Amino acid sequence: YVMYCDTLNYNSSNNTAYFVGPTRIKNKENIIYCESGWYNTNNDNAQFSKNASIITQGRKMTGDSIHYDKVKKIGIAIGNVSILDSAQNILVTGDKAINLGKQETSTVTGHALLKQFYGSDTLFLHADTLRTVDEHPLNKKHEPDTSVTWRMMYAYHKVKFYRTDIQGRCDSLVYSGKDSIMRLYKDPIMWSEENQLIAKKIELKTNGGEISKMFLKESAFIISKEDSIKYNQIKGKEMTGYFKKNKLSKIHVEGNGQTVYFAKDKQKKIGINKADCSNMMIYIKENAIQKITFLKKPDATLFPMRDFTPKEFMLKDFIWRENERPLSVGDMFCE
Q1: Distance between terminal CA atoms of the chain?
Q2: pLDDT score, position 112
Q3: Alpha-carbon gap, residue 323 to 71, rounded angstroms
Q4: What distance in Å separates the CA atoms of residue 47 and residue 189, rounded to the nearest whole number?
Q5: Which of 24, 143, 154, 293 has its CA 20 to 30 A from that of 47?
Q6: Concatenated DSSP letters for 16-85?
């Protein structure tokens, strides 16, 4: 390595270099910057502080103080921590970060917040712990092929995420750079515009920062609010949602399909359509049901509005969880 610094004191009894002022340390793998710290030449351990940062493989880790073990390739940052991944347009902040170079993993805890930038919009994601892992496919010799890399991101627990067009929460979440799918686990719930979406498992397929498909697996339930006592509802065993420009455009319901929605003529409610159909395709326009195509064994009835009572037109397991919806970045840090 090569060290450039303003002032250097070297203690020959413990083989430790102490540096004061702007300091840069360069080697083949990373660039280190700080304005105060020390470096032990015996064990290659170092402590950096005052605007400390380590740049390695396209990532920049900063913190109030950074401990670095060159031999084990371990970096630990404490206080006002950030990890910037310029290739992925991702910034992760928190109170503490551990970077394990040999395992190619980074872990952030304490007010952990991920920001992923998509042009003019940003996805914010908060959890107790955020971890990224670089993975490689195996070659013919069953060894990691380091020429190909995809990133896995794990978030747990108390996950919340917010973007202007979509919000959600769950206990844990996994995003795979290999297939560009975000998987939500344990009591997942999402909101897309006016729609509340619930299932035992939720998966989001992304493409270039935009959601292209959504998979609601097991006990899928979509609800949108007409007013304080009227709700449009779609229920089924599984659903696949299709998006255009991050807006839900159609929903394919598979198995035990049920719907309740308020039919309109020029914004005036003309009745309540209640239908049972094993499989159906539902078309959405401007966050409202535009058309339903019944694909298998339909049984539908249009009730006049005078027959409406809230209890009769709520499907089993109905629950409206609007108070849990994060409406801003600040909401994600609230219980």
Answers
A1: 47
A2: 95
A3: 50
A4: 43
A5: 154
A6: EEEEEEEEEEE-SSEEEEEEEEEEETTTTEEEEEEEEEEEETTEEEEEEEEEEETTTTEEEEEEEEEEEE
8 A C-beta contact, residue 9 and residue 16 = no
Cβ neighbours, 10 Å, residue 48: 28
d(CA 298, CA 304): 20
CA dihedral sign, ordered 162, 127, 77, 50:
positive
3 state SS of 88: coil
What confidence tens digit (pLDDT) does each residue in 189-231 have? 999 888 999 999 999 998 877 889 999 999 999 999 988 899 9
pLDDT at 232 (0 to 100)? 92
How far, in Å, CA of 88 to CA of 154, rounded?
Answer: 15
| DSSP assigned state of 186 | S
CA 281 to chain centre: 28
When pLDDT is averaged across residues 81-93 and rounded to a whole number, the result is 89
Instruction: Give dist(CA 258, CA 212) in Å, integer.
Output: 24
For 332, half-sphere exposure in the C-beta direction (CA atoms, 13 angstrom radius) is 23
The per-residue pLDDT for range 42-81, each reduced to its tens digit, is 999 999 999 999 998 778 999 999 999 988 989 899 999 9
Q: Residues 40, 14: contact at Cβ < 8 Å?
A: yes
Q: What's the whole-number mean pLDDT along residues 127-146?
A: 84
Q: What are phi and psi of 331, to 5 degrees?
A: -65, -25
Q: Are 149 and 133 in contact (CB under 8 A)?
A: no
Dihedral over Cα of 136, 169, 240, 296: its sign: positive
Does 142 sit behind a cis peptide bond, omega within 30 degrees of 0 on the bond before it? no
Q: Which residue has the tokens 């917010």?
A: 162
The position carrying tokens 């959405």 is 284
Tokens 């935009």 belong to: 210
Contact 44, 20 (CB under 8 A): no
**3-class SS at 294?**
strand
